[in-house]
């Protein structure tokens, strides 16, 4: 079996490692982890049985899991063989930037993975340059990507937008859920009951949007009788900055992604 090395083994790498093991794409012993934090390596070894690697070694696939602000450029300069494939999960940093730091011609695939790996939901974006497209179709690479949710192969020019909208996406939902649960508590429900109701409505409303073929406005209409409860509560939401606040938030995520990529 081929092996894979994660350099920078934080939250996102861990979510991918969990998916790789769960979906039997790699055995734990074929997953090598490198991080500057030794306790992180101990934790990953103990939790998943993966192999810690305090030095950067060669592997069939090398996942760059450090942050855009970290020394990714110094890391990639250490690769001296073109027998590896680099998969970068670093937000904002382009394939051209990574290739410019390489001293050997190594294929680079850029992905922006979604932390929803445990659920099978959530889109991850993938981009390659034309020269590396054949490499991206290799069995080991396809298996790697297929293990963590749904995939969208996109042009690299869309990847930063995809990051702010799709991959930061669970944030908007978590925050909405938290605010909704607080609203339930505010009007007098126990937190437990407010949570159960909110999660059920989230699932149910998502199902309606997916299966009913109806525009959200039509669904809102069904849910609001004349002079009734729903339209009164929506009136307040309309009066708030809710929609524009959400849209500004997504735009800020996209802008920050671009900004982070320019830092090095
Ligand atoms: N979390 C998410 O939802 C997503 C994250 N990403 C991308 O994944 C990458 C990692 O994010 P995330 O996992 O959340 O971040 P974390 O901070 O959890 O993980 C990064 C890890 O890399 C370590 N590190 C830093 N520099 C080096 C180095 N030179 N060599 C080895 N290890 C190093 C860090 O150590 P220390 O903390 O000591 O610096 C840390 O343990 C980022 O580029 C992010 O853009 C992409 C999609 C989604
Ligand atoms: O904040 C982050 O670094 C990651 C990238 C996209 C969403 N979260």
UniProtKB/TrEMBL annotation:
It catalyses: L-proline + NADP(+) = (S)-1-pyrroline-5-carboxylate + NADPH + 2 H(+); L-proline + NAD(+) = (S)-1-pyrroline-5-carboxylate + NADH + 2 H(+). Belongs to the pyrroline-5-carboxylate reductase family. Its EC number is 1.5.1.2. NADP(+) binds at residues 7-12. This is Pyrroline-5-carboxylate reductase. It is an enzyme of class 1 (oxidoreductase). The gene is proC. It comes from Gilliamella apicola. It comes from the Bacteria. Residues 156-259 form the Pyrroline-5-carboxylate reductase dimerisation domain.
């Amino acid at each position: 079996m081929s092996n894979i090395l994660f350099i920078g083994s934080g939250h996102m790498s861990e979510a991918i490692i969990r998916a790789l093991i769960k979906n039997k794409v790699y055995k734990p012993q074929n997953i090598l982890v490198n991080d500057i934090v030794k306790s992180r390596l101990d934790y990953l070894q103990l939790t998943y049985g993966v192999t810690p690697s305090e030095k950067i070694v060669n592997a069939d696939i090398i996942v760059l899991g450090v942050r855009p602000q970290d020394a990714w450029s110094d890391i990639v300069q250490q690769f001296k063989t073109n027998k590896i494939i680099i998969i970068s999960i670093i937000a904002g940093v382009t394939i051209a930037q990574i290739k410019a730091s390489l001293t050997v011609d190594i294929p680079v695939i850029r992905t922006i993975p979604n932390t929803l790996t445990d659920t099978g939901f959530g889109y991850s974006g993938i981009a390659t340059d034309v020269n590396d497209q054949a490499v991206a179709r290799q069995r080991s690479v396809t298996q790697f990507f297929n293990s963590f949710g749904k995939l969208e192969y996109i042009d690299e020019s869309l990847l930063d937008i995809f990051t702010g909208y799709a991959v930061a996406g669970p944030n908007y939902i978590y925050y909405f859920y938290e605010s909704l649960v607080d609203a339930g508590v505010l009007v007098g429900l126990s937190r437990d009951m407010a949570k159960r109701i909110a999660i059920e409505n989230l699932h149910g409303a998502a199902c309606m949007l997916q299966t009913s073929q109806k525009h959200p406005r039509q669904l809102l209409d069904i849910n609001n009788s004349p002079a009734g409860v729903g339209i009164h509560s929506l009136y307040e939401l309309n009066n708030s900055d809710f929609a524009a606040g959400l849209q500004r938030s997504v735009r800020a995520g996209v802008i920050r992604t671009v900004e982070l990529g320019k830092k090095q």
